[in-house]
Write a structure and sequence with these properties.
CATH architecture of chain A: Orthogonal Bundle
Low-confidence stretches of chain A: 1-15
Order of helices and strands of chain A: HHHHHHHHHHHHHH
Low-confidence stretches of chain B: 1-22
Distance between the termini of chain A: 15 Å
Helix content of chain A: over 70%
Structural class of chain B: alpha/beta
Helix content of chain B: 25-40%
Largest interface: A-B, 45 and 45 residues
Strand content of chain A: under 5%
Order of helices and strands of chain B: HEHEHEHEEEHEHHHEHEEHHHHEH
Shape of chain A: globular
Strand content of chain B: 15-25%
CATH topology of chain A: MetI-like fold
Number of strands of chain A: 0
CATH superfamily of chain A: MetI-like
Oligomer: heterodimer
CATH architecture of the largest domain in chain B: 3-Layer(aba) Sandwich
Radius of gyration of chain B: 22 Å
Largest sheet of chain A: none
Structural class of chain A: mainly alpha
CATH superfamily of the largest domain in chain B: Periplasmic binding protein-like II
CATH topology of the largest domain in chain B: D-Maltodextrin-Binding Protein, domain 2
CATH class of chain A: Mainly Alpha
Shape of chain B: globular
Distance between the termini of chain B: 52 Å
CATH class of the largest domain in chain B: Alpha Beta
Number of domains of chain B: 2
Number of helices of chain B: 14
Mean pLDDT of chain B: 90
C-alpha cells in the first residue's frame, strides 16, 4: 500500500514537471477574468435585491422589503413551490433512469450500437431546447385532448426527460472511475448480481448519484423554454413567472426572487462539488 | 439517507395534488404576465363563486402557438389587435357576441367598429396604448413629437437611445417616418426603411426592455417605447416626456376573447361582461396603467391617470396614430429579413 502510494506520488511529481496546465503563461489571469465575467454581473442583481426603492437600478438605501414582498406574494409563493416540486420529482425520476442507463452502458461488455445509445441519452444536450419544447407541446396536446388530464405530470415528465443526461454524466463518470475488482470479488464470493449491486456498487456509486440528482434538480429549477410551452393553466413556475414580469414593470422583487434562486443553486452546486471531491480523494 | 429523500419527495408530491378548487366554477385566463390586477380577480371570484386561474405568457406568438396546438385547458386569451384576425381566421376564437351582452352599453363608441373585430363579435377591450418617443428633456429640449428622435437623432441624444426590441412596432414607426403605409410591400419604401435603420443603429445604445429604471438612473436619454412605461417613468424622473411622432405612430389594443375549445364558456362570458363594467375596467387600468375602452371608467381610475398626456392623447396628435393591421405573410417575411439584419 505504502509503496504503491509513493510510486503514484512519483508519477504525479514526474508528470507535473513535464506538463501542467498551471504553467501555461497567463493561466491565472485568464482564469480570474473568466470568473469575473461569469460572476460579476450577478453582484448588482443581488445588491439591488436589498434596495429600499422601487427601482432595480437606482439605490435608495438598504431594506428587506422586496424579500418580504416576494414572500407575501401568493403568485410567487405558488410558483416557487411548484418549481421545487417539479424539480424534486423530475430529478428523482431522472436520477433513477440515469443510474440504470449508466449501469447499462458501463457494466456490460461493449456491444454494437453503444454509441447510438450515448447519443440518444444525451440528446437533450444537443437538440435546441425550443425544438424539444414544440415537439412536446404538440405531443402533449394530443394526450390532453383525449384524456382531459391537465395535471403536473406533463411538466414532470418533460423535465425528467431533459434532466436525464445531466444526472447520467456524473453517475457514469463515477462508475467508470470505480474499481471493478471489488465487484468481481463479490461475484467470486457467490454474491448474486443484485447483492453485488446493493452491497458494493451502490454504496460506492452514491456520491455520483447524489451529484447527478442535484445537478438535475438545478437544471429543472432553471428551465424556461420547455416549461413555457408545456405548462397547463395555473402552472407557472418561478422562471416563467419572472419572464412574464419582464415586459411590464420590473421591481426589485424579481431581484429578490433571483437572488434566492441563486443562493439555492450555489448551495446545491457546492454540495455536488464537495461530494465529488470526496470521491476522487 | 436514500430512504429519507424518497419519503420527502413523496410527501412533497402529495402536497401538490391536494390544491383543489373549492369554488363552484372555474375560469382559466391566459393573459400577458403581470397584466391582470389581483383585485379584479378576487372581486370576480367573490361575485360569481368562480375560481379564476391566471397563467402568463410573454408574447403573442407563444400564446398563439400553445393554443393552436390544442389541449391547452384555457378558456380566455388576451391577444393584441394585430393578432386578433389571425386568431379569428384560424378558428381559435368563439363568436361570443360581447356586443349583445348587458354591459356593452358602457363600451366607448370609437372601439366598436374596429378593423380587427368589426362590431365586436369576438373581443372586449382590455387595454390600449401607443408607441412613441420617450425623451429626457433635461438632455434634449427640442421637438419630441417626431420619430427623428430615434431615426435621425439630434446630437445631444446620440449614444443614449434605446429602441424596444419589437419588430412590428419598430418597422411600422420607421415606415410611417419615411412616408409609407403600415404593412406596405413597396420595395422602394422598404429599401429606404432598411437603410435608415442601418444608418441609425450605430447611434443607439441598446434594443431592450426595462427602460424605466434606466431613465431614472440617467442611463438613457431617449427611447422608442410604450406610453404606459413612459408614464411610470415620469413618476421617477420628472424630466421624462412622451412624444407622439407627427409622421405617424402605431396604436395597439389588447382584447379579451373566449377560446372556441373553452371548457368554461359560461364563466368566460360572465367575465367578459364583468370587465365591461366601468368600475372593473378601471381596476385593469389602475394596475398596468394603460387606458381601457370603457366609458365612465374614468371616475374610478387613479386621479393621476386622468390628465396624464401619456394616457390621454392630446387632440392635435390623435390623427397620426394608427392601429397596426395584420400584415400578409409575404410582407411579414420582408420585415423579418430587415429585422434580422438589424439585429446582427
Amino acid at each position: 500500500m505504502c509503496v504503491a502510494l509513493s510510486v503514484q506520488n512519483r508519477i504525479v511529481l514526474a508528470k507535473s514537471k513535464t506538463y501542467s496546465i498551471k504553467r501555461i503563461p497567463g493561466f491565472t489571469t485568464v482564469a480570474i477574468v473568466c470568473f469575473f465575467l461569469l460572476y460579476f454581473p450577478m453582484a448588482p442583481l443581488v445588491v439591488y435585491s436589498f434596495n429600499a426603492g422601487t427601482n432595480i437600478a437606482l439605490w435608495e438605501g438598504f431594506s428587506l422589503r422586496w424579500y418580504e414582498a416576494a414572500w407575501r406574494n401568493d403568485l410567487v409563493q405558488e410558483a416557487a413551490i411548484r418549481s421545487v416540486v417539479v424539480a424534486a420529482m423530475a430529478s428523482f425520476f431522472a436520477t433513477i433512469l440515469a443510474t440504470m442507463a449508466a449501469l447499462g452502458t458501463t457494466r456490460t461488455r461493449p456491444y454494437r450500437g453503444q454509441t447510438v445509445i450515448y447519443a440518444v441519452i444525451n440528446q437533450p444536450l444537443m437538440v435546441p431546447e425550443v425544438v424539444t419544447a414544440v415537439a412536446l407541446l404538440i405531443f402533449f396536446a394530443i394526450i390532453k385532448t383525449s384524456t382531459e388530464y391537465y395535471g403536473l405530470a406533463y411538466l414532470v415528465s418533460a423535465h425528467t426527460a431533459f434532466c436525464i443526461p445531466f444526472a447520467y454524466l456524473p453517475i457514469r463518470a463515477r462508475l467508470e472511475g470505480m474499481d471493478l475488482t471489488l465487484e468481481t470479488a463479490a461475484a467470486d464470493l457467490y454474491a448474486t448480481p443484485w447483492n453485488t449491486f446493493r452491497r458494493v456498487t451502490m454504496p460506492l456509486l452514491l456520491p455520483g448519484i447524489l451529484a447527478g440528482a442535484m445537478l438535475a434538480f438545478v437544471i429543472s429549477l432553471d428551465d424556461v423554454v420547455i416549461t413555457e410551452f408545456v405548462k397547463a393553466p395555473g402552472q407557472d413556475t418561478l422562471p416563467t413567472y419572472m419572464l412574464g414580469q419582464l415586459r411590464r414593470q420590473m421591481t426589485p422583487e424579481v431581484n429578490a426572487i433571483s437572488s434566492a434562486l441563486l443562493a439555492i443553486s450555489v448551495v446545491l452546486v457546492t454540495i455536488v462539488f464537495l461530494l465529488s471531491r470526496k470521491k476522487t480523494k | 439517507m436514500n430512504h429519507k429523500i424518497v419519503t420527502t419527495i413523496a410527501g412533497v408530491s402529495l402536497l401538490t395534488t391536494t390544491g383543489v378548487a373549492s369554488a363552484a366554477g372555474e375560469l382559466n385566463l391566459y393573459n400577458w404576465g403581470n397584466y391582470t390586477n389581483p383585485d379584479l380577480v378576487t372581486k370576480f371570484e367573490a361575485a360569481h363563486d368562480v375560481k379564476v386561474t391566471v397563467t402568463g405568457y410573454d408574447s403573442n406568438d407563444t400564446a398563439l402557438a400553445k393554443i393552436k396546438a390544442g389541449g391547452h385547458g384555457f378558456d380566455m386569451v388576451v391577444p393584441s389587435s394585430s393578432y386578433v384576425p389571425i386568431w379569428v381566421n384560424e378558428g381559435l376564437l368563439l363568436e361570443s357576441r360581447p356586443d349583445q351582452m348587458e354591459n356593452f352599453k358602457h363600451m366607448d363608441e370609437q372601439w366598436i367598429n374596429v378593423d380587427w373585430d368589426p362590431g365586436r363579435h369576438y373581443t372586449v377591450p382590455w387595454q390600449w396604448g401607443s408607441v412613441g418617443m420617450m425623451v429626457d428633456t433635461s438632455v434634449y429640449s427640442g421637438d419630441i413629437n417626431t420619430s427623428a428622435i430615434v431615426f435621425d437623432p439630434p446630437e445631444e441624444l446620440i449614444g443614449n437611445i434605446n429602441v424596444a426590441p419589437e419588430m412590428g412596432d419598430v418597422m411600422t414607426t420607421a415606415i410611417m417616418y419615411l412616408g409609407g403605409e403600415p404593412c406596405t410591400n413597396d420595395k422602394e419604401v422598404l429599401k429606404k426603411v432598411r437603410d435608415k435603420l442601418m444608418e441609425a443603429k450605430p447611434k443607439w445604445k441598446s434594443m431592450d426592455y426595462g427602460v424605466i429604471e434606466k431613465f431614472a438612473g440617467k442611463d438613457l436619454a431617449a427611447s422608442l417605447y410604450w406610453n404606459g412605461a413612459a408614464f411610470r417613468s415620469r413618476e421617477k424622473n420628472a424630466d421624462v416626456r412622451y412624444g407622439y411622432p407627427k409622421e405617424g405612430y402605431p396604436l395597439w389594443m389588447d382584447s379579451a376573447a373566449i377560446l372556441k375549445d373553452a371548457k368554461n364558456v359560461e364563466n368566460a362570458k360572465l367575465f367578459m361582461n364583468f370587465i365591461m363594467e366601468p368600475e372593473n375596467a378601471a381596476l385593469i387600468s389602475a394596475f398596468a396603467r394603460y387606458a381601457n375602452g370603457i366609458k365612465g371608467s374614468e371616475e374610478f381610475m387613479p386621479k393621476d391617470m386622468l390628465d396624464a398626456p401619456e394616457v390621454v392623447i392630446p387632440a392635435e396628435f390623435v390623427a397620426a396614430g394608427k392601429f397596426t393591421p395584420t400584415c400578409p405573410p409575404e410582407v411579414q417575411e420582408m420585415y423579418t429579413a430587415i429585422w434580422t439584419e438589424l439585429q446582427k
